[in-house]
Amino acid sequence: MAGAVGRPRKHSPRRRGRNAREEILDAASELFTTQGFATTSTHQIADAVGIRQASLYYHFPSKTEIFLTLLKSTIEPSVKLAEALGESDVSAAQRLWSLVAAEASQLLASRWNVGRLYQLPVAHSSEFAEYHQQRSDLEAIFRDLAEKIVGENDPRARLPFHIAMSVIEMRDNNGTAPAPEFGQQLPETAIMLADAALAVLHAPLPENREERTLELLNSLES
């Protein structure tokens, strides 16, 4: 009889995910956010998924690459939205509101609080320079939009980005996502933070801001 094709699991699937790659990221998210990067091994990640360690390397070449993928997942959706907003004719207030709401929403949509990964000392290593550049670019977009509202060099312009990121401290890390899948609807917490970001700038709230944001998010998926 011919041998089994592919890379068999050690056990039946035990993680959430549409494929093995997503299951690996789910397991790594839990382990990295609960016990840290240094004390998490690829063997532990593979065992949590129920696959052989060699199979994990088929999807990710290293633990560092898994960590980088998770870090980038915390900001890449907002970067795409920022690019789409840059090509639209909506007001600066609407664009900023949508960015804050989207960033907070996607940080709430994951089972594990992956935003915490940025707080780990290893995240500031030069190995993750690509992520640092993306994060700096995103922060600059937030600041530039805020300056369109309050003027250049106003220190308040730095606040909306940090207001969006404050959701990391507001959510649990218990394996249950506090919000639905990113893009389906805006969680109340995300709406609250987006409103707060404009309030600190003394900017009026745009009409139909939630509906317009969801339309923009859905257009990114199409």
From TrEMBL:
This protein's record includes keyword Transcription regulation: yes
GO MF annotation terms: DNA-binding transcription factor activity; transcription cis-regulatory region binding
Annotated signal sequence range: none
Record's protein name: TetR family transcriptional regulator
Start and end residues of each stretch annotated as Disordered: 1-20
PROSITE patterns per UniProt: HTH_TETR_2
InterPro entries given in the database record: Homeodomain-like_sf, HTH-type_TetR-like_transc_reg, HTH_TetR
Basic residues bias locations: 7-18
The entry's keywords: DNA-binding, Transcription, Transcription regulation
